[in-house]
Amino acid sequence: METTYTEENYLKAIWSLSTKSGKGVSTNKIAERLETKASSVTDMIRRLSEKGLVDYIKYQGVKLSDEGREVAVRVIRKHRLWESFLVDKLGFNWDEVHDLAEQLEHIRSTELTDRLDSFLGNPKFDPHGDPIPSRDGSFPERERRLLQSFGPGDEIIVTGVSDSSVAFLQFLNRMKLELGTHLRVVEHIDFDQSMLVQREDGNEQLLPQGVVSQLLVTEKLN
Fold it and tell me: What is the pTM (predicted TM-score) of this model?
């Protein structure tokens, strides 16, 4: 089934919102995510429903059908592969690639997507640490938790962000925090919920609450 760029953006937004909540998604949430009017969302949901891509259940919101999920995941796969290509092969920073990938994710060719995946060495995660779905739509798993859930003495590795906004990524750049950074938790600061950590070079760094609550990390295994 052919879908328009706008329809794909809606399906991707519904997938993202429902994955985080585990529930149906309200039209207001979709409108907020896509920065559009609720009336426009209602019209699009009706169109997507007629195509069999979403189901709307009163009081429960919008859910993707199996076919709708396939379309959404296919677009997400392309988006994250293109982000990986832009960072790994063209030297873009991780805060520069989202808008470019938004344009590239709508390229139709499945063969191009598969060749891109192979060219990149079949990466499992994109430059922001998000899982890249495989050709069959399955997502690789990796246990990650927010940095704020760890305590003094814990050694961790930065593996992702829960906030991938340009402003947040640029802030992490200034703090020299990137995927793969090794840290040891020194102290939680109760006053402002910040955290004192130690870097691999032995230097200590104070991370504000806004970073501690948005940085995804994996426990370092000794």
Answer: 0.91
